[in-house]
């Protein structure tokens, strides 16, 4: 038997809830990053985003959603989410569900 994680996330910009695979690529952000005006651009180890009309830079670290904890905020590629499909969107991990699958 193998297990697979399904992760419920909430986009911070519009409070939309989605369920993604645990293998989904994500980028960890600093704990004080609570919102942004538009999707971020990621360059090397940094995210560039706008907040209240100001250009901001935050350090990021690559991970997968199944390595995150509920309450943690991460950036997720916009293509994986409903809405605008460019850049990275700020999301909060809401819940982790593990399902067992017969092989």
Structural commentary:
By secondary structure, this protein is mainly beta. The chain has one domain (2-96). The chain is built from no helices and nine strands. The strands form two sheets. The chain has a six-stranded antiparallel sheet, with no helix packed on it. Strands 4-5-6 form a three-stranded antiparallel sheet, with no helix packed on it. Strand 4 (41-43) and strand 5 (46-51) form a beta hairpin. The N and C termini lie close together (6 Å). 25% of the residues are buried.
Helices and strands in order, then pairings?
Blueprint: E1 2-11, E2 17-21, E3 25-28, E4 41-43, E5 46-51, E6 54-59, E7 61-64, E8 73-77, E9 88-101
Antiparallel strand pairs: 1-2, 1-9, 3-7, 3-8, 4-5, 5-6, 8-9
Give the count of helical stretches.
0
Spatial order of the strands forming the largest sheet: 2-1-9-8-3-7
What is the helix content?
under 10%
What is the tally of beta strands?
9
> What is the radius of gyration computed over CA atoms, rounded to a whole number of angstroms?
14 Å
**Total domain units:** 1
Helix-and-strand structural type? mainly beta
Shape: globular
- Main beta sheet strand tally, sense and closure: 6 strands, antiparallel
Distance between the termini: 6 Å
Order of helices and strands: EEEEEEEEE
Q: What proportion strand?
A: over 45%
Mean pLDDT: 89
Low-confidence stretches: none
């Amino acid at each position: 038997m193998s297990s697979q994680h399904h992760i419920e996330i909430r986009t911070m910009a519009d409070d939309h809830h989605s369920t993604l695979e645990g293998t989904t690529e994500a980028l960890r952000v600093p704990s004080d990053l609570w919102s942004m005006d538009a999707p971020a651009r990621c360059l090397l180890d940094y995210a560039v985003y706008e907040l209240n009309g100001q250009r901001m830079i935050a350090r990021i670290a690559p991970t997968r959603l199944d390595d995150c904890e509920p309450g943690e905020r991460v950036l997720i590629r916009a293509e994986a989410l409903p809405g605008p499909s460019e850049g990275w969107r700020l999301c909060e991990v809401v819940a982790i569900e593990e399902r067992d699958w017969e092989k």
